[in-house]
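ARCHIVE CARD
CATEGORY: sequence design from structure
SOURCE FIELD: tokenized fold
FIELD CONTENT:
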């Protein structure tokens, strides 16, 4: 099952990624000024995953990626894939697992593992 992971950017804004069952990032969200905005966006996406649109692109360097649209607005951008098949598998993982995925919050930057 995939996981939404909330983190803080260097500019103190919040973002989240959707990571696969194996821990690889599938997509990264836009930035949010407040953490609760990102949390609300995750919940909205979980409830409306079936209505999301995936626009597929190929970069000038031959890599594949997609943008996630929700309600016609840009929601997130995927990582780069080497093949179109891997891109399709990334989308399939979102469709299958996003609505039941857990949310992890690593935005406080606390040390989890001490010496």
């Amino acid at each position: 099952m995939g996981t939404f992971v909330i983190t803080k950017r260097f500019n103190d804004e919040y973002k989240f990624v959707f990571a696969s069952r194996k821990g690889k990032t599938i997509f990264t969200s836009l930035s949010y000024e407040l953490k609760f905005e990102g949390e609300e966006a995750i919940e909205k996406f979980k409830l409306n995953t079936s209505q999301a649109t995936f626009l597929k692109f190929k970069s000038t360097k031959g890599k594949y990626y997609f943008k996630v649209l929700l309600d016609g607005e840009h929601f997130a951008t995927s990582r780069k894939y080497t093949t179109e098949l891997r891109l399709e598998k990334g989308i399939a993982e979102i469709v299958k697992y996003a609505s039941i995925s857990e949310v992890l919050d690593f935005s406080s930057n606390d040390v989890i593992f001490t010496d």
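CARD ANNOTATION: The domain at 3-105 is CATH 2.30.29.80 (PH-domain like). Residues 84-97 form the longest helix (14 residues).
SHELF: design records, drawer C
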